[in-house]
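Internal tracking record. Fields below are filled automatically when a chain is submitted to the structure queue. Please do not edit lines marked as system-generated. If the sequence contains nonstandard residues, flag them in the REMARKS field before resubmitting.
Queue: standard
Priority: normal
Entity type: single polypeptide chain
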Amino acid sequence: MKQISRIYTVLIFVLLYAPIAIMILFSFNAAESTTKFAGFSLDWYRQLFGDAEVWLAFKNTMVLALLSSVLATLIGTAAAIGLAKMKNRYLRSGVQTVTNIPMMNPDIVTGVSLLLLFAMVATIFGTGVDRLLGFWAILIAHITFNLPYVILSVAPKIAQLDRNLTEAALDLGCTPLSAFFKVELPGIMPGIISGFIMAFTLSIDDFVITYFLSGSEYSTLPVYIYGLTGKGTVTPDVYALSTLLCIGVLALLVCSNVMQRRMDAKQRKKTA
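SYSTEM-GENERATED OUTPUT FOLLOWS
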């Protein structure tokens, strides 16, 4: 059984990471072919850094992901704290169910429903739908579908908090606000960081919802790459771009894990 489980694990890792490894390999291809490796070269990276359209889409993606993840983290953390303090368990369960709907919904359903919402708003105010689509529409959508992930990351950390520490801080003269920042916030910070990283990566990755709400003048990397595949003009510079994104996300995850370990170690020292 151990041998079978090991073989199964290896197969899973191969299926997950072999395509990424092939993509990274072909980003260094000396030829334009995306099927035959003709030698090692950095030409596609040089071409990538000189492509203005790619960097505009990259900038749009990073600004959108950073802003939506920060706002979703702030709102989601506040929502998780509010849910934890709800005394009526039926009301709390109902709110949690409603909160999880954007996470359970298929992306295409969320995208179409948000498009219809903005179309209705445009009709009410007598303006064109294209004027409402773009950055702000996508930002609202990304915050919406990121919120459940932030709440799910923060809520377990809130449940693990020792309430006696908060009560001790209040007894020693802290106000409820200062007790939160000095006692509770450090305890739930690992969950907040996890929620932020999850929201950031989901925002970068999203295509379906962004495609419906991007309009004609705004483009992110997933939408831009999809446009290239539709024209049949995908070249290894897209592989180079995807490789840089993979490296960036990997670096972010490593930093997150290091920070969480340090914070957990500090928490153990405080409670010891």
